[in-house]
Amino acid sequence: MKKSIKYLLPISMFIFMIYLTAFTTEYNPVFDYQISENDSVMNDSINSEIIDMTAHYIKLNNDPKNKPSTNFRSGHVNPREIKKDYFKKTDYGYVISMGSYTNVPTPAVDNGVVYVSGGFGSKQYYAFDVKNGQSIWAVDLDDDGPSSPAVKDSIIVFNTESCTIFACNKKTGKQIWSYWMGDPLMSMPTIANGIVFSAYPAGFNGNINMQQQKINNIQQNNIKITGNSLIVNDSTMSINTSHVFIAFDLYTGKILWQSRIDGDVMSAPVAKDDFVYVTTFPGTLFKFKQTTGEIVSVKAMRATSAPVIYEDNIFISRRTEQAGEYAGEGIMSFSYANGKKAKLYNKRKAPYLDKNIQGLSDLKTSSMTDDAGNGFVGGAPSSSGWYAASVNVGQSNVSSLQSFQGSRTLHRDGRNYNTMGDELICTDIETGKVVWKHKIKGDLNSVGGFIGTPPLSVANYIIIATYSGEIIISDVNTGKEIEKYEINEPIRYQPVVDNGWIFVTSTTGKLHAINTGNKKITGWSHWGADAARTNIVK
Q1: Where are the beta strands (DSSP E) in 142-189?
Q2: Is residue 365 within 8 Å of 396, Cβ to Cβ?
Q3: What is the chain's mean pLDDT, rounded?
Q4: What does the alpha-carbon distance between residue 106 and residue 404 come to, in Å, rounded to a whole number?
């Protein structure tokens, strides 16, 4: 479908970047605020609002003329021979070269096998033996940009950027079912209770991102919903949708339900108990019932990460600045139960979310190159919703949006752990006090994006990887560094761990396997801990 004209890349990059300007960064103090008894609006001390859009989305999705199509063609999977020189032993274990020299998403580990994409610029998927790196199977796909996988029972599921979801036998790589859904797909799939959750672009008379840009400071009682229109201060805005959230039967691929949403899913859906939660790139948080797709809640909140759900608390990062201010971000905790106190932690300036700063970064340059290699010579297509994403999270390319993970919270034992740009921060959730924090080395503005991955935790450890190529193991209570490994290659994606091994990918098309010898380092098998992406320590 896509045609590359790679000699236009320098021109297109120059046109895109010439008007952008850079800013400096500084930090703001931590504070908290009181939630209104009416959970549809949450006012903090800088007078920003969270707008309840639930009624609108229920009306829109209940209208028969808005029903998404169920007609999709299939993708194709074929066995391939892997190159003999793919494997190399190292002092710490081994390294596997995919050959694409592009960013490789987080792998998954299951029953002694590590499953990994060939990278954004590839059309391959692989399975290797955890301990010795021996190839178990390798397949060619008919689409490029395979995502991080979800593995459950006998099945591995992954998306490709262009433009298919695949479910394959995890032992052989043989295709079970697939659907070509739309171009591009920028999220990872999620599996819970025998259901696969994903999203695809399906433009419907524009999109809904106007809610984030134009009604952020509008009081809830000035908003009325009429049909498919939003009446704000007696003015009508179109707020129609650009993407569809979809649920499949894991084993058969049967489409169970679909719901229109306002943008692509940020990172991955999150399944917890009977519900599935979605943060979209425009910054809206959706809550659905897993089995039926019933819309439980939709809140426009300028969210900047996938949520984490612990008991009745929701932990999520969000933009905090007002018009004319520097990009700002904080970590918010709230509950859907009325009358609960909400808190905003670690409020700070966030150059890593500023589209102007990001537009001049190394990440922007490499993302333009990666996009061009996959056929997007001028950058992401309009179907991706890149503009709304750039306003909210600062990124505007298919490759950088696929790899965006944000300041996602790790919650355990009454504390939150977040990587926010270039700092790993541990916070007490009751007091808002920073317990400890570590600066991550690197030039945040010039590198672009986050220079540390979202943290993971097993046993008494916190583990992150950094853009400078370090994998750092710290004490969960004190933050004291216990061990550090260096692979000397840039890292963007969260690692996984299993039975003493750390598996981490690089932006240069490689999978590094590190044998720590510590059997306590185990139990974080996927991006987000598990196939449901809960990010919860087991």
Answers
A1: 150-152, 155-159, 164-169, 175-180
A2: no
A3: 87
A4: 12
